[in-house]
Amino acid sequence: NFHYFFSRKVCLVKYSLGFVYMPGGFGTLDELFEVVTLVQTHCIEKFPLILYGKKHWRGLLNWARNTLEKGGFISPGDIELMTLTDDIDEAVELLLNYMNERCSEKRISNAFN
Prior knowledge:
mainly alpha
């Protein structure tokens, strides 16, 4: 239980090996943009950012591409930091591949201590 939302987000990022964003509202968007900004600016290591539910997320990604990318507010390719899917097997595969390729057993076990 967190008194301040920012401290919740610090812990959210510190102990995560990836994110799967389900359809949600402003809180979900806040967490998504917080994490994608940290990855985009190389403040944290790149890891899986999975948007689950194409119908829910497609409009946001189209807006980001047509407004932010075309307007020069984000770099070409920044949207590709996120993966859009309706396939649970694809989401799990992305997470497992990341863990197998990038994470040592020590880091994975430390994430749960």
